[in-house]
Amino acid sequence: MGKNEKQFVEEITPMEVDFPQWYTDVILKTDLVDYSPVKGFMVIKPYGYAIWENIQSYLDKKFKETGHKNCYFPLLIPESLLNKEAEHVEGFAPEVAWVTHGGKNELSERLCVRPTSETIICSMYSKWLKSYRDLPYLYNQWCSVVRWEKSTRPFLRTSEFLWQEGHTLHETYEEAQEETLQMLNIYKEMCENLLAIPVVTGRKSDREKFAGAEATYTIEALMHDGKALQSGTSHFLGQHFTKAFDIQYSDREGKLAYPYHTSWGVSTRLIGGLIMVHGDNRGLVLPPRVAPIQVVIVPIAAHKGNVMEKVDELYNELKSSIRVEVDDRANYSPGWKFNEWEMKGVPIRIEIGPKDIENNQVVIFRRDTLEKQKVSMDNLKETIEDLLDNIHNTLLSKALEMREKKTYTATNLDEFKNIIENTPGFIKAMWCGDEKCEEKIKEETGATIRCIPFEQENISDKCICCDKQATKMVYFAKAY
Amino acid sequence: MGKNEKQFVEEITPMEVDFPQWYTDVILKTDLVDYSPVKGFMVIKPYGYAIWENIQSYLDKKFKETGHKNCYFPLLIPESLLNKEAEHVEGFAPEVAWVTHGGKNELSERLCVRPTSETIICSMYSKWLKSYRDLPYLYNQWCSVVRWEKSTRPFLRTSEFLWQEGHTLHETYEEAQEETLQMLNIYKEMCENLLAIPVVTGRKSDREKFAGAEATYTIEALMHDGKALQSGTSHFLGQHFTKAFDIQYSDREGKLAYPYHTSWGVSTRLIGGLIMVHGDNRGLVLPPRVAPIQVVIVPIAAHKGNVMEKVDELYNELKSSIRVEVDDRANYSPGWKFNEWEMKGVPIRIEIGPKDIENNQVVIFRRDTLEKQKVSMDNLKETIEDLLDNIHNTLLSKALEMREKKTYTATNLDEFKNIIENTPGFIKAMWCGDEKCEEKIKEETGATIRCIPFEQENISDKCICCDKQATKMVYFAKAY
């Protein structure tokens, strides 16, 4: 280990020693994010924001392909609107920020900074919707929301975060149900195809569902430390809100009817997942399709001969289809640069010096496997494109392998507790469906039901907690 | 005038009768925007938001091409930070929304919802910036801001609006000055090239500049009713904020220095300008490059022969490079559809029926000139692309002509008042530079100095107000 490398590695606490500290070291040292002067609020720095932009543009395209349109609803919601759906207000009122003054004047009604927009959007839908011909409503907005959290961690749980929230209305129960699952599938596909994160899909238990939902569906990912991350949710809201907000339309028979309703969202939390699924003790490992910089070119002996000329040539060749940068800073050594870009998780590094040019080759370093190889300069763009795909697939397989290794089954509570304490991960177990068992397990172990997976297995006939007849197999885990 | 047409036209108040009502009719009836349950806040509907998305993607590309990166800073700013720059707090404190409670707890310090982000961003820059090597800082964010306005109009002045705000730091005065003007030029170019809106560029008077700026530069457009719209601003902030926030770095000589600072922004207000520059008594007229739908295809006698087949063929041919939609709604007549799409300002309508197919032609209607013509189906994509460019150029010329027609010169106050009362528009006049004259003119006429244009003319030697030696030619106007 060279001096430079050591210096870098020492900056990041090894994850085996202290996983939370490893996470904090990585996000701060790689310039993804910083703490702000307001407790619980984060500043997303350019390198972190560029990841979010890639997630946005991927999803926005999928949303539009499936007929959704973007719009924008107000940031502030009157207290009386928030109060209209009983379960919703109970769930959100304790964690909203209240605006009480505009300029020097006290407001006649408090306004909350949106924690989510069902209420304000439903109040508008109620005004707009007239006929079955107007349906479906397929709208989405990209914005920030505020939830007053007591204990926060950048990306994972912050008092403000960026997200998208889709809000749709449909004529029939079935159509709304289909939409709910379609959007869940788009999230799942995005996690796998963009972020290289495998997810378990399923339904939330009633205890864990969204405040006001009839059913919440979720994608759950497993982190390096064996904790689960709820990475996106899609809610089937039935007619809970449409009745509370009196959204009625004239149906095909000319009668007044309430539409069926869905909402769904993913947030900057995904960036936290990205870090905790792929990162290692050198720092970030970014999957190529979401990496702000996919390839960094580091010139060796840049002052010599035609090195910079060749570097420029290469850069110009790659940049049409690859997010590539040249690190030509004169005041840093190549070794220093290598370590910095490794820490920042750039998938591929190209080194090019006078000897490489003589041999018509470059040195390629893969961040994911830490392998170095020499490749020909001929058809370099195709080589790199293939390699980026290969890296994506390798990362996805590795993450899947890790998840499978950390997925256990338990048939009794002792086994369950033993796993949680010694080898945390997903635990597949049978459940009777009673909230009391769910709560007891949470109290005794800290683990919650992450989801009732679509893919059911019959592990045993008895509930892991009460020994009564089990009705479903569920995934338990401690979670972020 | 057919019955359908009449019905539509009657829905919109003619602009000559009541311009503000015309504006309100147009924005509501074309589904750009709606009023929300919170006074002064607007809902941007999908058709309006799609215009904003086109502005965003155009500008975001320009920002990135000039080296800027996006990031995200918190929505809420502690009162103590807002108070740090004296002029700034004086300008903004009276119009901010205050968050006083998080959940059930009163906060120890009030937080304002950002009215603009100089203060929170400078507090972070002060933490981050170490060396001249880190400069320049070229950052931007897309977000919403809140300013508690008493009198509001959708897009033009609302208590919340969407915008982008660039915040940059530089080593030298000259470099910051260059950045300020570079961004102003990007705004000007965007107005002309995307929105087909010609603008006058120049500097704001000290009275009209941004609270805390050393100099504010502006782009000013003229609306149909002769009122000006400040359409974008770029501020040279000097060291006002960098000193107030103690942003220091180690310069090339190793000494501590304060950087120079700029900020610049445009907002959803541009959409208001778009409407009031190009719209007519039938509704919106959207310039093609920013129009959410550039071409609408309306089938005639859709049930007959191969009409829908041909429509699909056409649609598939155009959609690779043109934002095209087919209006195949069965429950509306072609005439009804024509009027609706005219009202919504779609630049080109294509009509296609059995006879057109026989003759291998389509009927093309231009929204800007209201002209209909028959064109061959051969090379239709090229024909349409050329026509879209032609429409853009025609709209820009027309707007320029309108502005020139409504730009006057005045050499004394009587002339000035006569213009303002009878033929409102831009008034070019000489000014001594004294704020007292500026205020007197505002009091007596309602007109303000829109800018001290870069292109100076010598109209006379005397200030239009006090007859003393004039130092500059300025543009006056009543403004939104």
Automatic annotation (TrEMBL), chains A, B:
Top-rank lineage group of the source organism: Bacteria
Alphabetically ordered keywords of this record: Aminoacyl-tRNA synthetase, ATP-binding, Coiled coil, Cytoplasm, Ligase, Nucleotide-binding, Protein biosynthesis
Entry keyword Glycoprotein: no
Xref: Gene3D superfamilies: Anticodon-binding domain, Bira Bifunctional Protein, Domain 2, C-terminal domain of ProRS
Enzyme class: ligase
Gene Ontology process terms (BP): prolyl-tRNA aminoacylation
Record-listed E.C. numbers: 6.1.1.15
InterPro entries assigned: aa-tRNA-synt_IIb, aa-tRNA-synth_II, aa-tRNA-synth_II/BPL/LPL, Anticodon-bd, Anticodon-bd_dom_sf, Pro-tRNA-ligase_IIa, Pro-tRNA-ligase_IIa_arc-type, Pro-tRNA_ligase_II_C
Residue ranges of every copy of the Aminoacyl-transfer RNA synthetases class-II family profile domain listed in the record: 46-287
KW Amino-acid biosynthesis (keyword) present: no
Catalyzed reactions per annotation: tRNA(Pro) + L-proline + ATP = L-prolyl-tRNA(Pro) + AMP + diphosphate
Subcellular location: Cytoplasm
SMART domains documented for this protein: ProRS-C_1
Coiled coil: 370-397
GO cellular component: aminoacyl-tRNA synthetase multienzyme complex; cytoplasm
UniProt-listed SUPFAM superfamilies: C-terminal domain of ProRS, Class II aaRS ABD-related, Class II aaRS and biotin synthetases
Molecular function terms, GO-annotated: ATP binding; catalytic activity, acting on a protein; proline-tRNA ligase activity; transferase activity
Cited Pfam families: HGTP_anticodon, ProRS-C_1, tRNA-synt_2b
Stored PROSITE patterns: AA_TRNA_LIGASE_II
Notes concerning its domains: Consists of three domains: the N-terminal catalytic domain, the anticodon-binding domain and the C-terminal extension.
Task performed by this protein: Catalyzes the attachment of proline to tRNA(Pro) in a two-step reaction: proline is first activated by ATP to form Pro-AMP and then transferred to the acceptor end of tRNA(Pro).
Subunit structure: Homodimer.
Family: Belongs to the class-II aminoacyl-tRNA synthetase family. ProS type 3 subfamily.
Identification of the protein by name: Proline--tRNA ligase
Originating species: Alkalithermobacter thermoalcaliphilus JW-YL-7 = DSM 7308
Taxonomic lineage of the native organism: Bacteria, Bacillati, Bacillota, Clostridia, Peptostreptococcales
